[in-house]
Amino acid sequence: MIFGMWDGALFHIGPIPVDHLIVTEWAIIALIGVIAFLATRDMQMVPRGLQNAFEMAVTWSYDFFTSLMEKEHVAKRWAPLLTCFFLFILISNYSGLIPGAGHISGFQPPTSNWNVTMTLALITFFSVHIAGISEHGGGYFGHFISPSPLMLPLNLIEQVTQPLSLTVRLFGNIFGEEMVIAFMLFMVPFFIPMALMGLSVLLGAIQAVVFTILSASYIAAATSDAI
Amino acid sequence: MKRNKGFYLSILLLTSIMVLGFAAFCMAAGTTVVGEPAGATPRFANWYVVGWTAVNFFVLLALLYKFGYGPIDAMLEQRTTTIESNLKHAEEVKVEIDQMRIETQNNLADSRKEAQEIVARATKAAEDAKNEILAKAQEDSANLKSKATAEIAAATEQAKIELKDTAASLAIFAAEQVLGRAINEDDHKKMVQEFVNEAGDLLC
Q1: Which pLDDT tens digit goes with each residue over A22-76?
Q2: Residue A154 domain flag
Q3: What pLDDT was estimated at residue A3?
Q4: Model pLDDT, residue B87
Q5: What's the total number of domains in chain A?
Q6: Rounded to 5, what percent of chain B is helix, strand, coil?
Q7: What's the whole-model pTM score?
Q8: Which residue, among A1, A65, A98, A192, would best test binding to B if mutated, counting the most B CBs under 10 Å from its CB?
């Protein structure tokens, strides 16, 4: 464990090891799932309470991604995935601010591990190409040699740098934030880290938004008519 | 009471922060409560974590779709359909109401026209009845008048005759008294006739 970050299995399911952060991911999934279930278990024609909030969030996400992607059908198709990115990353980031994070067994902020951020970036990577192929068919691959075949190496490098930048940005920010808070708690345990934790609330939201918007913009670029 | 509750909550919060801060301090100092020994470097490309995260993410996506986007999309669609249906129904009702209003206005106009006709007919009938009654009254009146005139005339004539007779008798009686003698039939008649004529002229 380094500054409250485990890098080993908590337990095994058969031969498969389960890390601490995987358990935290399960808790996050359960939290979002339960809230979503409670919000939509008794749908009413006139929405109230949690249902109203969820409906507002869903319609807002459609509007937001439509304005970002300029194609409504693409935005509606990919909005659930992008919203899932946002919620998962946001709650993962904030889980690091809950007292006990990194110190209670099975409780480690997932986005402070680069394997998790890499997975999310890889999902974005594949989603971008699936979106591009579903929108343009085989013609999608033409953009790799656009505007000239000489651009092929650069375009290929871009395909690598996109998920790499997503991975490193999110991991670096959250891991760095966790490290700084842990270090501050080590140096000055009382009150001073609270300011940093307050900053972390903002940083966690910003990183979730940045990851989501970048993913959306990659998908928008892949589905754009300019290709 | 609220003040006490807030006070106790503040104490609880501060205590929690102090305990957790102390725990963090202990963790960072190496006195781990749980977990593995400190100092391990996070491994890159831990494919178990990658696999689990991918599975977890797609489970979350499925849950979000099942309990979030799916029902809400369906509800939004249902609401859109309901609103469209209601708007269409409202439009139909509006058209129907407009049509009914036009029909009502037409009926009202017809009713007014009919009422005017009825009034006109009634007025005309009343006028006719009045005229008829007047004519009949005038006719009756004329008849009565002519009858009365005739009766008056007849009565006058009868009265004249009776008066003549009475006057003759009176004259004879008076003459007898004056003359003290009887007169013959011819004189009698002659005198009476003259008297009657003079008296009749005077009377009439």
Answers
A1: 999 999 999 999 999 999 988 888 888 889 999 999 999 999 999 998 889 999 9
A2: yes
A3: 52
A4: 95
A5: 1
A6: 90, 0, 10
A7: 0.67
A8: A1
**Rounded Cα–Cα distance for residues A9 and A29 (Å):** 20
Indicate whether A126 belongs to any domain: yes
Q: What confidence tier does B3 reach under pLDDT thresholds 50, 70, 90?
A: very low
> Residue A207 domain-assigned?
yes
Q: Pick from A2, A3, A80: which is nearest to B65 by CB? A: A80
Contact by Cβ (8 Å): B194, B183: no
How far is C-alpha A31 from the geometric centre of its chain's CA atoms?
16
Using CA atoms of A78, A83, A89, A93 in order, give the dihedral in degrees to the nearest 10. 160
Pairing of β A9-13 and β A16-19: antiparallel
Place of tokens 């004249």: B160
Q: Model ipTM?
A: 0.91
CA A32 vs. chain centroid, Å, equals 14
Interface of B with A in 81-100 (CB under 8 A): 82
Question: Tens digit of pLDDT for each residue in B141-157?
Answer: 888 888 888 888 888 88
User: Cα separation of A32 and A55, whole Å?
Assistant: 15
Is the pLDDT reported for residue B71 higher than 60?
Answer: yes
> For residue A168, what is the nearest residue in chain B, using CA coordinates?
B44
Q: H-helix or E-strand containing A99?
A: none
Residues of chain B with C-beta less than 8 angstroms from the C-beta of A104: 34
B63 touches chain A (CB under 8 A): yes
> Does the beta-carbon distance from B52 to A122 stay under 8 Å?
no
pLDDT at residue A31, rounded to an integer: 94
Note whether residue A2 is domain-resident.
no
Cα of B43 to nearest chain A Cα, Å: 7
- Return the closest-CA partner of residue A72 out of A135, A25, A16: A135
Domain of residue A102, residue span: 9-223
The pLDDT, as a whole number, for residue B200 is 64
Asked if the model's pLDDT at residue A152 lies above 60, the reply is yes
- In the numeric block, which tokens belong to residue A207? 């990183």
pLDDT tens per residue, range A155-186: 899 999 999 999 999 999 988 888 888 788 77
Tell me the two tokens of residue B114. Answer: 């009919």
* Contact yes or no for B35 and A83 at CB 8 A: no
